[in-house]
Specification:
Elements lengths: L4 E10 L2 E11 L4 E5 L6 H8 L7 E6 L2 E2 L7 H6 L1 E4 L11 H11 L5 H14 L15 H13 L5 E5 L7 H16 L4 E4 L3 H7 L2 E6 L2 E6 L1 H6 L4 H11 L1
Helix pairs in contact: 3-4, 3-5, 5-6
Subcellular location: Cell membrane
Organism: Microbacterium psychrotolerans
Family: Belongs to the ABC transporter superfamily.
């Protein structure tokens, strides 16, 4: 099967600062790829370029067989095929949990109200929030809001799910409930690219770990290799912070 996502020599700069420097990455169907690296290494920018929130300066990005870095591409069509969850929950505060989830189903994917409501109900049951359907986001804990955000992102059955440090804004006791949900999505075969600082989670869930350093992919491989026998000195130096 062809790759779901392919980045070919992607460059992105902000002013004189090169944030992405010749990124080459291919993600297969059902693969879970964890992006790790220090703050400022380019993880979030990489995800933002894939969702067309940041234009690239050079290279190409493919979603299946579509060159989504082509300037004339239909941005809305691309984003309809990708689910994204950011560090902050970005839920609409004036809408109930149920309506947050059904919004894209009804207005982007033109699903009838009854079908959208049924899909949202099933998703809320899956994430353990069936009793919160009529609540507004400000009545939920951070972990609950992030689970709603993930449910909203996967409601449209995206070809690719991008997760950008989805636990970084959570209190430590709430991290586990969100990671459990991501673990279940991975087990169901969803294609996921996630930027994370949760090293144990990346080791347990990812099929491949990609270490970014100053905008370059310095090392990439199975978790056992990257965490157990990293090839690069810089990778060992970075991982030492988490084992010291």
């Amino acid at each position: 099967m062809s790759a779901v996502l392919r980045l070919e020599d992607v460059w992105k700069s902000f002013g004189d600062h090169d944030v992405l420097r010749g990124i080459r990455l291919e993600v297969s169907p059902g693969e879970v790829v964890a992006l790790i690296g220090a703050s400022g290494s380019g993880k979030s920018t990489l995800l933002r370029t894939v969702n067309l929130l940041e234009p690239i300066d050079d290279g190409r990005i493919w979603l299946r067989d579509v060159d989504i870095s082509e300037p004339r591409v239909d941005v809305d069509d691309v984003r309809a095929r990708i689910g994204v969850v950011f560090q902050q929950y970005n839920l609409f505060p004036h809408l109930t949990v149920q309506r947050n989830i059904t919004l894209a189903l009804r207005h982007v994917h033109r699903m009838k109200k009854g079908e959208a409501d049924a899909a949202a109900t099933a998703l809320l049951e899956r994430v353990g929030l069936a009793d919160k359907a009529d609540a507004h986001p400000d009545r939920l804990s951070g972990g609950q809001q992030q689970r709603v955000a993930i449910a909203r992102a996967v409601a449209t059955s995206p070809e690719l799910l991008l997760l950008d440090e989805v636990t970084s804004a959570l209190d430590p006791e709430l991290v586990g409930e969100v990671l459990d949900l991501v673990r279940n999505l991975a087990a169901d075969g969803m294609t996921i690219v996630m930027a994370t600082h949760e090293m144990a989670f990346a080791r347990d869930v990812a099929d491949r770990v990609v270490f970014l350093d100053e905008g370059r992919i310095l090392e990439s491989g199975p978790p056992a290799q990257v965490f157990g026998a990293p090839r690069e000195d810089r990778t060992r130096e970075f991982l030492a912070r988490f084992t010291a």
